[in-house]
Each structure stands twice: as C-alpha cells, then as structure tokens.
Task: structure prediction
Amino acid sequence: MDKHSSGAQATAQLRGHYMAQLRKKRLLNMILLIVFIGLMAAGFRTAEERNAGGFLDGVRNIFDFPADVVGEAISRAHLLPGYLLKYLPSLIETINIAAASTLLGGLIGLFFSLLVTRGLAPVPWLVGPLRRVLDFLRAIPEIVVALVLIYLLGGGPVPAMIAIALHTVGALGKLFSEVNENASLKPVEGLESVGASWSKRMWLGVVPQVAPNYFSYALLRFEINIRASAILGFVGAGGIGYDLRNTMSWGQGKFDEAGAIFLLLFGTIVLVDQMSSLIRNRFTHGAKLSEVRV
Amino acid sequence: MNALSLEGSVQQQFARKRLVSFAVPALILGYFAYIFVAFDMAGLGARVNVKNAATLVSDVYSHKTHVTRDNRDGSLEIAIEGERKGRYAPGDSPDWVSLGDETVVTLSGGHVITMGALVSYDIPGYGRVTAKPGASGVNAVFPEGAVPEYISASKNRLMIVTDAGRLTVTRNRTEVFKYSAGWELFFFTLDSPYHSMSWGQIATAALSGEAGAILQDFWSNKMWRHAEVAWAIVETILMAFLGTFGAAIIALPLGFLAAKNFTPLGTLRFAARRLFDFLRGVDGLIWTIVLSRAFGPGPLTGALAILLTDTGSFGKMFSEALENVDEKQIEGVASTGAKPLQKYRFGVIPQVTPVLLSQILYYFESNTRSATIIGAITGGGIGLFLTQAIITQKDWEEVSYYIILIVLMVFAMDTLSGWLRRKLIQGDGGGH
Result:
C-alpha cells in the first residue's frame, strides 16, 4: 500500500517535471517563432521601402515584361531558328568557361584536398592554414575577382574563367577533403610499406577509391558554374550573358532576340541538370545538391 | 584452360585500365589546349594592362594629393585625389605646402618644388629644372647634360615623374601630385574639426561630451560614406535572409505535394515537380532581369529573385527528404488516434526538421554571396557600390575597402549559420 502510493507520487512528480519541461520548450519555440516572423515582416517592409518600386505595384506588372518577350518572339517566330544559331557560339563560350573553370578548379582543388585531409597531409602543420585559404577562396564572391580582372585584362572569357576557377578550388577542395576522410587507409599503408612516395600513395591509394564521389561533386559544381558564368557575362565577361545584356538594352520591340537567349539559357540549364543527375545516379547514389553549394 | 582464360581476362582488364589511365589525362590536356586557343590565351600577354595594374596596386595602399596652380590667374587649389569632397579650404594647407606669393611644396627625399610665375623643381642628384609657363610655351630649362628618362618635355608640356611625386606644367596649369601612404580622410573629411586632431585629442574631446559629434562626423563622412555603406551591407544580408527563408516557407507545403508518400495523386506530384524544375531552370539571372523590370532596382527585387530560384531548389530537396522519412514513427503516432494534421506535426516534422534546417542555413550562407552579385545586376546593396567604384576606374581604395567588407560579411554569416546549425540541430554529428 505504502509502496504503491509512493510509486504513484513519483510518477506524478515525473509527469510534473516533464510537463514543465515541455511547457518551457514550447514557450521557447514560440518566442523564436515570433522573433522570426517579426524579423521577416520588418525585413520585408524595409526592403520594400528601399526599393524603387513597391511590392503591390510590381506584382501587377510582373507579367508585362515576360508577355512582351513572349509576344514579340511569337510574332517573329520565323526568325527564332536564326537567332538560336546566331547566339550558339556565345552559349558555347559560356559552357566552355564553366567547363574549363570546373576542370581547372577541380584539379587544383583535388591537390589542395589531399593537403588538408588529416591523416593524408604530407605536412600536418599546413592543414590549418591551407583550410583558411580554402575558406577565403570560397568567401570571395566571383564577381569581385571577375570585375577586377576585367579591368586588368579587358573583357572576355579569361577573367570569368579565373574567377570561377578560384571559387571552385575553395568549394571542391573542401568537399573533396570530406570525401578523402572516408577513404580507407589500408591501400595507403600497403603502398607505404613498399616504399611508395606521397604522390604515388595518393594517386594509387586514395584517388581510385573516391574518384566516383569526386566526379559527382564536380558535375554538380559544373551545373552551378554554368549559372555563374552566365551571370558574369552579364557584367562584361563575355559569353551568352553579355549578349543578353546587349539585346535587353535595345528595348521594347526588339525583345525577340532576348527571348531567344532566354530560351537557350533555360534549355541548357535544364539539359545539363537532367544529364548530370542521370550520370550521378549511375556513379554514386549519394551526392545531393544541398551538400555542394558551399 | 580455365587458368588461361582467367589470365586472358585479367590481361584484358589491365589493358583497358591502362588505356583509361592514359586517355583521361590526354582528353583533359586536349580540352585545355582547345580552351587555350578558343579563349585566345596567347594574346593575353598583349592585353594585360600593366599601367592599370600599377594604378590599382598603388591606389590600394596610398593616396595622392593634387596641388594645382592656375597659371592664368595665379589661384591655387589643394585637393586630395583631386576631388571636390577632399578640397582644402582657401588659405588652408597640409604642413608640406607653404603658401605665399610662391607656393613651396616639399616632397620626401629632399625634393622641393616652387610654384609661382616661375616653376622650379630641385631634384637631388640631378639639379634644378625651371619652367616659365606663358603664351610662348612652358620654356623649360634643364641642367647641363643629357635629360634623364623620367622627364618628358615638349614646347607646351613638361612632365617630371619621380618616386617622390609628379610635376606637370602646361601653359595654363602647374600641377603637383604627392603620394602618401594610407587611405585618405577615412575617418574625418577636411570640413570636420576632428580631421586635424590626433587620436589623443579626439579621445579627450570624446570624454568631454563630444562623442556624439565625433561619431556623427565619422558616420557622415562624404568621401567614404560609412553610413550608406553600412546600409548597403544590411540590404545585402536582408536580401539573402528574406529570399532564403521566404523560399523555405513557400517550398515546405509544395514539398509535401511533390513527395510520393504524401501525395498519391500522380498529376499533382508531376505538376509540383515540373514547377520546381522550371523555377530552377530559369535561373537567378533571368529572374533578376524579369523582376527588376517590374519592381525597379532595390533590395526587394533581389530578395524576390533569390526567393523564386530557391523555391525550386528547396522544393526539390524537401520532397526528397520527405520521401526518406521513416514510416514507423508516423504509424506510431497514428496508432494513438492522431488526426492527419497531428500525424504530420508529430510524426513527420520532427524527423525532417534537422535536415531541412541545415539545408536552409547552407543556402542562407551561399545566398549572402549571391545577393552581392544580384545587387550588382539589379542595383542594390554592397554589390552596387562595388560595381560603381570599379566603373570609375580610379577609386581603388574604395574598391578594396568594399572587398574587405564583403569578405568580412561573408565570414560573419558563415560563422553565424554554422553556430545556428550546431545550436538548432543537436545530433548532426558532422556539423560541417
């Protein structure tokens, strides 16, 4: 009897504690939610105040420009194939910028990643400083490097390629080093026991193990870099972005060429997106978009 | 026989591996060779603008002061970087210029320039160069012997460029540039009383109740526009914040629509997925252009562009995460008699929250960088300041200031989001 009541008492006490804890957690979550909503609302109002046009006016006009472009493109549809052909070289340049910078950045990033992986690094005290270098390369937006290089080298694809490649070194260097950490050390030890040098241990012991993952990440980076190279073109670095800015500046009545470029860009991005996810699925069943946007 | 065929197949495999290990590097090399030609890298050497590079580098750590005399009326003007905002008041001058009938400019290393009707420059190790600008030209007179390379002289123009500074004389104008280290007027402009004070004096003034005025003068600095730059940074972060979290709020319900285990209706799922593909495929650049036509330049346009693109990305990622939830937990909640909404709230949301939150925070980080770029296109935030400063092609000290601020901003946001990830998502062992 006594035992029973004390047991019930303990349960009641436990339940009381639990409920108190739950209430505290709920209250905290509630406060967080309110702060978040407040921030969103205040942020939206500030952004709207500092914008040239307000939100409600803009929403009403939002389809004007797309309608213009589509309308003009349809009314001169017979010219469209010609335009697509005309801007194909620029599109190829944009893709080349992305591909070359992904390849270049990937190769340098691969080298960096081996230098910053604990357990594989040949110079352990360099791991920390080199990681900071990678952080720094990732932190600088591409446009900063590209604009400065355009001033020094003139317009064209090279500034964009260098800018994107630098960022790619930072991003892929970090991702590759995370992949390296999961590599088995046994082949490396085996190679070491027969006297292989560091470069041979890495090239024959580590890289073959993780190459499919490297490839997946590099493909995802390629997708991102195509977008980046189109954007950099818009600020003067050549490729399809540059043509887009020019055709846009011709103004109303001449949007059909801009429409053709929109179409090319959209088609390319969707195509590369689909192809890369197909290839990635064959190589690995892992790498996700979310992991790669560092 | 069996061993033989095994050996054969092994040999074959080795041959293939060998081929691949040579073919892949050869392909990469071939592609780079193609890029080398296609991008005209060989002509790059000719295109490099060495003079621009020198201006850029020297501008980053130094500034120049212009001392200009109008030879027609004898008036004198001293201005930092030759800008109106950096002009000294008449009768006021830095301590290396002594005003009078003849203005004497003392450069470093014993170089002295006297500016008046007669201009003279004493160059240590060479001698005195004089010029008498007038209707007949600049009438330059040099010491005997060959004229060194750093002097270029013609009938109407004399230019002397030394390490200490630069003198230009034309018929109408005599101008001296003096280079000094550091960013000019970074804290206070010349019209502020605090410009001529030392740090100690300013600290004393601040303690005696002038702190507000001092801060006000710094904040409203016309040359560096600290207040506006700070606002631009806030605007950039605001774009990233509104865009990312707005997209997440919209994408969550859409993600349920696109997930196989929550939406049995195929057409609905298909529609949601195609919407995501469309939003992602159109890409931030095109969204930015389309939206800036409707909303005009500013942070709202940038925020909406990020919001639209990322709604596509988040929708896709969220639906993938939702398809991977553990059904057992939902069944467990259902067995207690939970209604459908409660099933989602207690069976699904707790499972996916850590994954979704960490994805959202990753995007928040990377969108801080995107917002800088979008700002440069649509005209808002620090990206706009950066492009404007680069377009002038002479304010490189401001460009480097903005670059430093951008990098600090990105680092700060990375740190904040990393800290939040660790704080909010316990058990996310990686914490990368």
About this structure: The radius of gyration of chain B is 33 Å. Residues 65-181 of chain B form one domain. Confidence is low (pLDDT under 50) at residues 427-432 of chain B. Chain B touches chain A through 72 residues (CB under 8 Å).
